[in-house]
Amino acid sequence: MDKIAAGPASDRRDLFRESASRLGMNPAIVEKDFWVCWILRLLFAEPSLKNQMVFKGGTSLSKVFGLIDRFSEDIDLVLDWRLLGYDQEGANDPYQTTSSKTQQSRYNQEMNAKAVTYIRDTLLSQLNDLFAPISGVIARIDEDDPHTVNVFYPAAFAAEYIRPAVRLEIGPLASWVPSSSHSIETYAAQVFPDAFSNPDFEVIAIDAERTFWEKATILHQEAHRPGAMPSRYSRHYYDLYKLSESPIRKTALANLNLLTSVVEFKERFYYSSWARYDLATPGSFRLSPPSSQLSALERDYRAMRDMFFRDPPDFAVILAGLMALEQEINGEAPVSFVSV
Length: 340
Description:
Blueprint: H1 2-6, H2 9-23, H3 27-45, E1 53-56, H4 58-63, E2 75-79, H5 101-131, E3 138-141, E4 148-152, E5 165-171, E6 179-185, H6 187-191, E7 200-206, H7 208-224, H8 234-244, H9 248-253, H10 256-269, H11 294-303, H12 315-329
Parallel strand pairs: 2-5
Antiparallel strand pairs: 1-2, 3-4, 4-5, 6-7
């Protein structure tokens, strides 16, 4: 991958254009996928970095597990909080009991502040040292979110919904378990494996069953949100729908202890009175969005069309599927698992 990254821009452009043509994808997606994978390979191969983070979120569903048919362009990373001075085996245990919500909130803010300092003062320079041999690749802290590092790359293609930078969204307030090692490759390597000296590489990723419940609790939270949703949230509805159409539905629903773990983690580290995580349990779980948010979600979903590899389901189909999943979680519908 380094040879391609360091090679002539015209060679990369030809590789991405021809790969996109054969895969039926937008060339901007194939190009950005290359840079996403190039960054991931460095993160999980570099000795000074590979044990610091775990890969999670929508991009892992696409690249690691092949469970969604959309291009997820950002890299969500769990930062090892031991780098910040926390240790579950020692006195400074993040899971230690706090006396109040206010004390827990201060604890969370302190950990996030330490993460911001670590990203700015240590990690950013490590990343730019790794990127330095490749012209046009540079990492900068996001102006609006100090937990996010934007990695700019020499883009030859553009698409409306695709940003010309890879966002590394890095935070310590996420669980590492369960996770496992997986092999992934770029879309270009799927078409032209001989163009790559090592077409695949290993990453450590959060298991898809945990991501299922992470996504489900996001939707539960949004069902209770008193105001407008954040932008670009339709992807969570699509992702959970696709997970529910896969064998992950069966294994996730069979592991309610994992749901409990996700809920307890969010109540401790992402507490919100309106999110009603206390109701995120079979019998009172909500996945369907409020009717007041449907128009905005549908507009956002239509804006995502360039991100899909295949014709995406209508948003109405997604809503119907999530309603059925909600009923199943709550014991209101017959169990009908997808067969493996």
